[in-house]
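One-letter codes give the sequence; the fold follows as tokens. Both lines appear below.
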Amino acid sequence: MLKRGLPFYGANLLASLIFYPLLLQVARGSGLVEVGYLRVGQILQQLFAFLPATLVPVLFLQLRMELAFQVQVKRLEIPLRLIWLLLLQVLLVYCLCDQWLLGILFGAGFEAALLPTRLLLLTALFECLAQLIVQPLLAQGKTRLYGFWQNGSALVAALVGWLWIPNAGLAAYLLVRLLYVLLPLLGFIWPVLRHLQFPEKMLPLAFLSLATCFVLLAQALSLLSLSWSMPLALFGSMLLLLLQWSDVKVFAQWLMPDHL
């Protein structure tokens, strides 16, 4: 058991050994105030990822009951779409009202935490997707693949962070965190994608997620103003509900099965 669990706790240990020094580098270069803004985002990030974190163990046990990888992917498909839809919708709505929400939760003077929080929630979205998509692979015992992508992305993030953070500070740290999550997601998704029954139903989710990522990255690099978040949130939310209406109905039936 200790040997089979090595990719999991080894990856977490390596990530801690890499990101804590990078965070100290942010504090030395930009000051503790920037780290405080980061903490605000981390609190909301934990709330954002609460539901997927509770569902992953249940999903893993269900997938372990199936022997064929194709059947495991098929059982993953609907929960993946529903959770992706929910998290992306929450992120878009948050981008619409985050200034008001941060004022209520933390008081005045936290406007500088707007962009860090948005990037952390975007990172949490992709991290939750990666943790869901990897479940069929883990159910097949492919823990080495998990360890390869997690540890490889951590080493890449360490290299990029040490080179970039001294010049760009907190923005670089947040983008390095995003990079650390995106690389494993890309690695996990390829073997799963080939066995999806209805991959076309995930295209709107993928396109809107990429559009959101593009806007937030452009804002982090000062290429777009924060005001771009409002049209993105309004248009993206309406388009998401329209294109994924069948999943919205499934989600509603799952919440209130006795009333629909």
User: Anything to note?
Assistant: The chain has one domain: 6-255. DSSP finds eleven helices and no strands in the chain. Residues 69-106 form the longest helix (38 residues).
